[in-house]
Amino acid sequence: MLPRTWKRLQLLWRALSGRSTLEREMDEELRFHLENRAADLARSGMPPAEAARRARIEFGAVEGYKEGCREARGLRPFDELRSDLRYAFRVLRTSPSFTLTAVATLALGIGANTAIFSALKGVLLNQLPYRDPNQLVKLGEADAGEKRAETIGYTTAYDLRRLSHSFASMSLYRDAAGAIVERGEPELVGGLRVNYDFFDTLGIRMQIGRGFLPEEDRPDRRHEVVLSHGLWMRRYGGDPNIVGRVIRLSDSSFTVVGVLPAGFRTLEIPGAPSTSELFEPLGYALTEPWACRDCQHLQLIARMKPGVAAAQAQAELNTIMAGLVRQYPASYPPQAKVAFEPLREHIVGRVTTALWVLMGAVGLVLLIACVNVANLMLARATGRAKEMALRAALGAARWRLIRQLLTESLLLAMAGGLAGVLLGWWCTSGLAALAPREMPRLNEIRIDGTVLWLALAASLITGMLFGLMPALRTSGADPNGALKDLGKATDSHSRRSLRNLLVMGELALAFVLAVGAGLLGKSLLRLINVDPGFDPHNVLTLKTYLYSARYQKPEAELSYDEQAFARLRATPGIESVAMTSSLPLRDSDRYGFHVRDHRLAHPSEAPSADHYSVSSDYFRVMRIPLKRGRVFNAQDIATAPKVAVISETCAREQFPNQDPIGKQIQLGGRDDSKPWITIVGIVGDVRQYGLDTTPNIAAYIPQAQNMAFVFTLVARTSTDPRGLERAARAAFLAVDPTQPVFQVQPMESYLASSLAQRRFTLALLALFGGMAVALAAVGIYGVVSCAVTSRTRELGIRMALGAERRDVLAMVLRQAAALAATGLAAGLVASVALTRFLSTLLFEVRTTDLATMAAIAGLLAAVALSASYLPAQRAASVDPTVALRYE
Question: What are the backbone dihedrals phi and psi of residue 647, each rounded to the nearest 5 degrees, phi first?
């Protein structure tokens, strides 16, 4: 229908117009071919006038040409486009150095943008792999001012579920683990304990079997298990009859009721292990100890009902929480509330700023690449002035010239885009491999159809960006003036000014990127120099998981550790060993800190202290300095009086102007009927949650007096701890080969992991900053080189009149320095405005750090002058005799 209508409109237009559209099209096409042929002849060395005459002779049979076109059924739609492309290809092929430089420059910009956008899309923009993910939220108990939704108590969650009407479901969960000994070496498998409706809340259907039933989510049941697809394949060979099979997990029997689909991942679930492979019912009930309202040890995820707004749900939760605070004033802080976060924000919030900063950085790199190619094309247009003038003299309309030049630009951009996609494909794989393992949704970073469409759009837009301005400038030249100087490669003042402006823009953008990289680098350097409170070098760590019934008594577990210790101490290279409940730079257990002679107005006013259970040699192994008193010794056993060692910050904040030694404390809820713990020593602070966080108050108790933890070995070595990993594992397996031993790695790996995201962001930003500086240097070189070429006659005259080489050299360098100074000044203003987005990524460094900015400005000025020196040297070497005959 549409083609027929279009044909009728064409016939109507031809009937109404005096001269047919077809004839006008034929005249236009003839003129186009005439121009191209004349330009080809002129480029081969033929004088322009002769080239025009020869072209007219070749196309002299105009009427015959038109007659042939009339016999045709009309011009094909893309004939002119194909002609434009063929001619553009010929033109670019005759300038291989220009073409390769432009394509490589664009490929760098487009490739970097493709890779970073792939990461941005995979981590931030893709929807979570659950049903209606925008309805999923993370809830947690919080004090006034807190926004993050972390943990919650079972009783509080039970009341929220019972009283709220904005949610379709709420489901609790917590981490869990189980040891599998079947078929080979014991393996600790991580997982979750979940409410029966956990998978329904997420909207996940089982691949085989079913989820949990309400009656199975009880403390007296908990004998069912759901397996991940990976565990099912790895340990059970993908047995299709796995449902109903009884398996052994940590000395208990469980019946497999379902297998999750292959695409299910718990990395998106806050508080879940990175690889959760088994799921058990939570099995809690409103009985002690789970009815404790002061306990916050569970995670809560909820699904809002369709049509319910987030603000409405948040208001309802606040109302319910206010009622609970009034009803149970002793169990909640006065300003207690429910923190409410969309699940997606909770997962990716900590990396959002870094990724958007990187996306902005690669956008600036692409913009600099476009400016560079525009500068190249403007410089090249000087040499094509006679071609454009000849075309205009032969009757070419300005739009025809613009269209031809834009076709060349788009052809360059598409070639650069294709090379950029190939480069981006490789960079995306490298990006996923180098990104820190802690980055959420890392496995979703890939190039897909959306990314490819973005690369295509970027290619087209960049083609228009760097091609439009040169096309407008070149096509707008006066043909009469240009034809008078057909033998000269002239460069107008306005064209030079435009190129200078573009270079100054390049330098300004490069300055912004380099300053950002410099600030992050200085921040990372200061962070690396922070004292973590312990010595991580030459320390080996190892975790064990004792599940057997024979280890239920503390004496048996301590005996297991001591036997393994004896073997380790006899291993060459191991100096000392100890155990701890929490490693530094990992999450620790927190308990309320109560001092015996301090009475609080409300239990919620008790500070929260990091709580560690450690063996007697722990402080010596980790080299945590003793400040006062003593550390633990062999006499601090289970039957001895309970003792504790506190941190410096704890002593300073909880016992101001007092001596803490001999004071008595309790950890957890205050209970005067239970034994109090006597402080016997003060040790240095440890930065438990990262080098960029202030140490929290901390309390240590002897391992023998509190065994309610899963412990980690720390061993001080005299050699590289990596060489002792196998020996350490063998020492524990020799004591009991049925107990899993896992996460055998140096302590330095935890330190590196805590800095991994900052290093990753800095490395990429430094890379992009380096690319920007290099592109800016190329741009300056090109501009100064073109300026020298166009001023050859002037320089010859100057030297013929007595100017020294050093005078000419200084003159060219002064002009380059003026360009650099102006560009850096603009970059300084832009950096002050833009680097504030880096504030959350910096540590003890201001976004307006003048020392960093001055150093970057000096570096860029040196780069600019170095790039200008070769053209300046060439200008100073001009022979006046040759220069006066130039052109």
Answer: -85, 165
3-state per-residue secondary structure call for 545-578: CCCCHHHCCHHHHHHHHHHHHHHHHCCCCEEEEE
Whole-angstrom distance, CA of residue 16 vs CA of residue 4? 19
Q: Where are the alpha helices (DSSP H) in 147-279?
A: 154-163, 198-202, 229-236
Contacts of 610 (CB under 8 A, 6+ apart): 582, 588, 589, 590, 688, 696, 697, 698, 699
| Phi/psi-derived region of residue 737, left when phi > 0, alpha when psi is between -120 and 50, beta in every other case | alpha
Give 492: exposed, middle or buried? Use CB within 10 Å, 0-12, 13-18, 19+. middle
Amino acid (one-letter) located at 328:
Y
Which residue in 126, 356, 421 sits closest to 263, CA to CA?
126
- What is the rounded distance in angstroms from the CA atom of residue 64 to the CA atom of residue 186? 90
What DSSP designation does 124 have?
A: I
The residue with tokens 């960029």 is 692
Do 763 and 711 lie in a common domain? Answer: no
Q: What span, in angstroms and rounded, lies between the C-alpha atoms of 198 and 221?
A: 17
How many whole angstroms separate alpha carbon 168 and alpha carbon 872? 74
Instruction: Kindly state the tokens that stand for 657.
Output: 């102007």
CB 265 within 8 A of CB 129: yes
Copy the structure tokens of residue 157: 């969650």
Domain endpoint, select from 692, 720, 747: 747
Per the rule left: phi > 0, alpha: psi between -120 and 50, beta: everything else, 283 is left
CB 887 within 8 A of CB 791: no
Q: Could you count the other beta carbons within 10 Å of the beta carbon of residue 809?
A: 17
| Mean pLDDT of the region 782-791 | 71
- What is the token pair recorded at 346? 């909770």
Alpha-carbon distances, residue 186 vs 190, 549, 722 (angstroms): 13, 16, 22
469 and 434 in one domain?
A: yes
Q: Are residues 285 and 359 in the same domain?
A: no
Shared domain check, 158 and 39: no
In this structure, the answer to whether residues 766 and 660 fall within a common structural domain is: no
**Among 284-288, 346-350, 588-592, 714-718, the range of highest mean pLDDT:** 714-718
Please measure the distance between the N-terminal and C-terminal CA atoms of the chain and give it in whole angstroms.
Answer: 61
Q: How far apart are CA 200 and CA 194, in angstroms?
A: 11
- CA-to-CA distance for 708 and 553, rounded, in angstroms? 11
Among the candidates 20, 49, 74, a domain finishes at: 74
- Average pLDDT, integer, range 162-168: 93
**Shared domain check, 307 and 161:** yes
Q: Measure the CA–CA gap between 525 and 522, rounded to whole angstroms.
A: 5
> Do 505 and 579 reside in the same domain of the chain?
no
What six digits make up the tokens of 37?
A: 């042929």
Distance CA 139, CA 282 (A): 18
Q: Which residues contact 129 (CB under 8 A, 6 or more apart)?
A: 263, 264, 265, 268
Residue 273 has pLDDT above 70, yes or no: no
Both tokens assigned to 639: 């039957």
Tell me whether residue 131 is in a domain.
no
- How many whole angstroms from its chain centre is CA 556? 47
Phi, psi (degrees; rounded to nearest 5) at 299: -110, 145
Query: Is 263 domain-assigned?
Result: yes
Q: Which residue has the higher pLDDT, 194 or 143?
A: 194
For residue 82, is it within any domain? no
Beta bridge partners of 589: 611
Look at the chain and count its residues: 887
Two tokens at 589?
């257990």
Specify the higher pLDDT residue, 511 or 64: 511
What range does the domain containing 866 cover? 352-528+754-885
Question: How many domains does the chain fold into?
Answer: 4
pTM of the predicted structure, to 2 decimals = 0.74
Whether 556 maps to a domain, the answer reads: yes
Same domain, 179 and 253: yes
Confidence check: pLDDT of 667 > 80: yes
